[in-house]
Write a sequence for this structure.
């Protein structure tokens, strides 16, 4: 599938909360490492349109993803990249891929204006239960780190209810939680 609607709920955690959730919920003992490589124009055209562009690297595989606002969550458009194509993006020579390029054109963003800004590395643990995906992340970027709980849901209403219930059960306060790319760029300032 080249496009999907992502409905997710997030909350930043303290280290203590993170460690408690590791034991309280059926997360795997070890996580999977994923690296997000972020791209943006020099004048932040994507950000001004509420969009974000990344290449996610997992186990030697690369996926280019454009995230755009959608009334139910985020519209994600994906294209697979070869390692050689990903390397070309990293050195400032982006290669147009059909699905993401089409969406970028609709946003009025020229691929040659995109620049590589850096990476955020995450150790992700997740499990699926009753149609929901629970994620626990430890992320490192710009000599900083954070902990985050995510819940991916099939719809907004049930996802919000399930997420609020989980926070309440685990005695975790709701915190303002910018997404990873926002935290990444905020840390560069």
């Amino acid at each position: 599938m080249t496009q999907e609607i992502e409905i997710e709920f997030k909350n930043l955690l303290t280290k203590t909360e993170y460690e408690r959730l590791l034991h309280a919920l059926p997360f795997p003992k070890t996580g999977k490492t994923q690296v997000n490589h972020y791209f943006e124009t020099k004048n932040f055209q994507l950000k001004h349109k509420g969009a974000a562009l990344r290449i996610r690297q997992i186990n030697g595989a690369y996926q280019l993803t454009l995230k755009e606002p959608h009334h139910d969550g985020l519209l994600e458009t994906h294209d697979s990249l070869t390692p050689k194509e990903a390397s070309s993006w990293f050195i400032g020579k982006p290669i147009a891929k059909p699905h993401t390029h089409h969406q970028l054109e609709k946003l009025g963003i020229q691929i040659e204006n995109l620049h590589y800004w850096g990476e955020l590395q995450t150790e992700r643990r997740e499990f699926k239960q009753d149609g929901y995906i629970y994620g626990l992340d430890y992320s490192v970027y710009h000599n900083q780190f954070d902990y985050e709980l995510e819940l991916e849901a099939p719809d907004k209403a049930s996802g919000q209810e399930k997420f609020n219930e989980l926070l309440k059960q685990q005695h975790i306060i709701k915190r303002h939680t910018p997404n990873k790319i926002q935290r990444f760029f905020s840390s560069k300032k």
Remarks:
- The chain has a mean pLDDT of 96.
- Residues 3-187 form a domain with the Hypothetical Protein Pfu-838710-001 fold (CATH 2.40.320.10).
